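Incident log, entry 3
Record: Lipid II isoglutaminyl synthase (glutamine-hydrolyzing) subunit MurT (438 residues)
Problem: checksum mismatch between cached and fresh output.
Input:
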Amino acid sequence: MKTLSILSTKLSAWVLHLIGRGGSMPGSIGCKVDANILSKLKFNGPVILVTGTNGKTSTANMITDLFEKAGYNVISNRKGDNLKAGIVTTLLTHAKLNGEIKANAVVLECDELNVRHILPFIPVTDFVVNNFFRDQLDRAREMEQLIDSIEKVLPAYRGRMILNANDPNVVRLNLVAKNASFSCFGMDENKYSVTTTKEASEGKFCPKCGARLEYSYYQYSHIGKFHCSKCDFQTPEMDICLKDIDLDKETFSSDGIHYKSPYEGMYSMYNCAVVLNVAKNYGISQDCVKSVFSHAPQPAGRNETFTSKEQTCILNLVKNPTGANEVMKVIEKDDSDKTIVIVLNDREQDGTDVSWIYDTFFEKIMKDSTKEIICTGLRANDMALRIYYGGYKGPLSVVDTLDIAVKAALATKRTTYSIATYTALLPTRNAIKKEMGL
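Fresh output:
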């Protein structure tokens, strides 16, 4: 059954490639042929699994680049097919018929709810957890339920866990992973740290004793330095601690060496901290790390900038309060006159519950320099109502058609920021490129 599973996956992937398509269907076929195919594969070298609410794709891709620059032959699900079927597709299409993976390093991005379907069945050497935030309540449910699904498979895990030391919801995993080793990354207090926060926060209570957590400072949301008011649960010592944070220059230091982040925002620097942590664990040189940071591709919709003549448009994906708040901070830094287009959909991939927009500080972009806000998408009216309730005094409109909304925004000749949910991202990107002639 193993050989047939691998063969059928390879064949279906080849057929899809011939007709110009990809996707995770081949992995679904492989699993139907042999439900236990993952446990029958043979791996050579590190197997790194990356999960968390925000930053999975960027982090996994930079780790992949890191190993490639260090001379490894790496396979990875770079395109973000991070559910079980997508991961099986990646592995089986790069496997010999005897089940041996044709690489000496494997880096896999994994959806949080799918960790339980992957971690127990392949020999993961490093389990990376970036963060946990509220996300898509209709699919992921409450965050406590999501974390519980991961905790249930950790007691038997014997590899290394690479954890965000500034997220209590991540640090709590070491309470149940008794057979694992740990390596932690995080960020030191800096000029952007705050002692109080109004952002949606899920790290309020100790997972060990239930008492309230106390914070020395916050970086964003519930990310910061914490300790329990009653027991010994606290921010652990960090193997990698970022210092000298400069969000204007996008620079930081670690172990006395200065780096430039490839992406904007403090949250992106945490992704860089993971790369430094992995490099340290595997003895990969800082030259390789710097090369990864300097050549990291800009993911579609992650502060993606389009320019044409005198027109500039910046596109960002939003999908939950914490990620959206970080996008708001990036836009807030720009004091030039701007037009903002917000595309809010509620399809299954977006999350059908859009109440998260009321936990997002859209007020940060309601500045005098924001000359107009245009709302479109399936839930455009809901978005416009949120902006209205936020107290925005400038021109606010609802446009039924995405192309018309983008055209109207670009016609202002101001810098345009487009903010789109998951299913709206590619259509928005295409509308921008079409209108700008790119």
